[in-house]
Structure formats: C-alpha cells, structure tokens
Amino acid sequence: MTATSTATSTAGPTTDAARLAAPARRARTAPLPRPVGLPTPRGPVSAAVVDVLASGSTTPADARRTTAAELERRALGADEVLRDEDLQLALWTLQELSFRGFGGAGDRFEWDLELVGARQLLEGALEAALRQVVDVPTGVAPSEVPEVLFAMTADDGAPGMSDHLARRGTLEQFRELVVHRSIYHLKEADPHTWAIPRLEGSVKAAMVEIQADEYGGGRPERMHAALFARTMRALGLDDTYGLYVDEVPATTLVGSTAMALFGLNRRLVGAVVGHLAAIEMTSSLPSRRYGAGMRRLGLDRDATWFYDEHVEADAVHEQIAAHDLAGGFARQHPDRTSEVLLGAAAGLALDELVGGHLRSSWEAGRSSLLGGRAVDDLLAAAAA
Questions:
Q1: Please, are residues 356 and 153 in contact by the beta-carbon 8 Å criterion?
Q2: What is the pTM of this model?
Q3: Which parts of the chain sit beneath pLDDT 50?
Q4: Whether 350 contacts 342, CB under 8 Å
Q5: For 139-383, which CATH class?
Q6: Sign of the C-alpha dihedral, residues 6, 9, 10, 13?
C-alpha cells in the first residue's frame, strides 16, 4: 500500500460533506464485517435457492431441478443471460456460499452436491454467454500478451462515466456508483485470490505481490475493502457487506458472478489472471477522476482515500500484471493464452455493461438502482 496518512483535507468541505464524513474519521481500524443477509428473490430460480438457504420447504434437489427446467424453458440468448435478474441473483447467492456464506448457511450448504450442480448449470450458461458476446483477440503468441493487453486497456479518449463524475457528477450519482461497486469492492481481491494455489513460480509471486497490496500489506485498516467501506461511510451509506445486493440490477451482479466463475473453477485460472490484469491496468486513471470529482463536491480524505490509493498502487500494479502475471502465465502455458485474453476481455466488457447502464439512467434523469429506487431511500434506511 502507498497511502500513508489518514489526515482529512483542510480545503473546506461543504456542510453536507463534513456531516457525512465525520463518523468515518473516528474509525482508525477496519470493523469486522457483519454477516450478509439473504437477498430478496427475483424469480423462480433465485426463490428456490433462497428458500433452501433459509431452511424452507425447498430441497437442494428441488433447486437444481428448478434451475435446469428454467434454463431450458427460457432458452435465453447470450445477452439475455447477462441481464437476467433471476439467474444472476441465484448464481450470486450460490457463489456467495464460498465467500462469506450467509452466516451458518455456507458451512452447511457450500459443498451440497445438488446446490453445486445448480451453480454449475448457471455458471455454464454464463460462461457460454461470455464466450459468445465477448470479443477476444485471436492468433496472439504468448510473448505478445502484454502488448495486446495494453492495447485492449488503452484509454480511447471517449468521454466515459469517470469523466462525467469528475466534471459534472452529483453527490447522489456518486452514492449510486458506490452502491453498485460495493457488491465487489467490499470483498475486493477475494475472487482473484482463489488463483494463488493454482499458480507456480514467478507467476504466483506476481499474483501475491499484487494481492498483498490489495489486502493492505498486513494492516487491516489499509485493506482496499476497508478503504472502500470508509468511502461508503463518508457518503452516508451503510457499509454492511452485501447489504445493497437487493438494490442493484443484473448488469451489476454479473460482474461479480463472472469474477467468481473464473475464480472458483480451476480450469479457468488463466481467465482469473487475465481478469485481474485488466482491472489493474484500467483503474488508475478513472480512480484519479473519481477522486477529483469527490473533491469538487467538497468531500474529504475519508471519501477519496480508496480512489487516491488506486491511482498510485495500480500504476505500479499494471506493469506487474501485464508482464509478470499475465505474460508470465502465457509463457508458462502457451496453450492457455486465449484463456488469459478471455478473462481480460470479459472484465472490460462487463465493466462497460454496467457503466452503460449508469450513464443511460442518469442521462434519462432517473436512478440507476434496481427499480429506479432513489438513493435517498437508502440513506434513510442507513440512518434508521
């Protein structure tokens, strides 16, 4: 980690910003995460999964049969799979059993063969959809992987979400962005860390070097997930892990389900490598813009530290990720070069998917949250 100070800005934040940031300044260490609650179902598949985990009348075998039947009945196209609220929520819920696990439910159900079967069905549909819609470079030699990744992740100069937020974004829009991003950032690095025991030699060392920074170099208050929680508190949001899953659409959830798909399946370890490389190679400049936008609104160090940290850390990480991690993996496993590029391309495409949803919502003058819910409703719930 490169951030070295928790001091707040003296630039004169707005009254609203100062009020929101004050509670966060008191927290010098990362609080222990509270258990995530089960989400509200969005259709028959997620309803079956949630009912199993809630010890309802649905059995794990029922959930697997419902999943198989609904996938067959719907016969969705690739883009529809990525946007399907019911399927993406069901998959997120099943994958979460291998992360925080809904209290004791993860201990009981993580390796239930019927639920694993349901998860595999949903992951199979997601993987097939990604392979169909994502544009993956072909004919790339292992030695060319770093150069190709830099080309894939280059800033094309077109105005994007980070440009909008830096120049014109409102406090409400920043809050919405953070709600969306909380689904991943409150467990930042965890999905990629599954790859570490599956790597070897210099490639494993490169992954560990990056992840060690993500986890704060041994200092819990500097873990990137803890810094993001600090940003949430500074914006008046509740930083409870997984709390806002009911507030975000499938276009947000699919970014996390794809990440977990790559991380939880050994055969896709190359995709994990490529996915992490793409993240590290594209976060520095947008993070600079997000930080600038927050400072423009008068928000202080508590709100911006997460983004300021990524400006510096990822500028270093991108070289390690491109050359030592992704390039190194391709050199070790030449036959899996396309897998690395699949992971990178999928990460970029899904980031654009959710970014497009946020931009189109804001251009239309509506909230980007699920069902158009106003962010003020979330603030009221956090204050209750």
A1: no
A2: 0.89
A3: 1-28, 31-35
A4: no
A5: mainly alpha
A6: negative
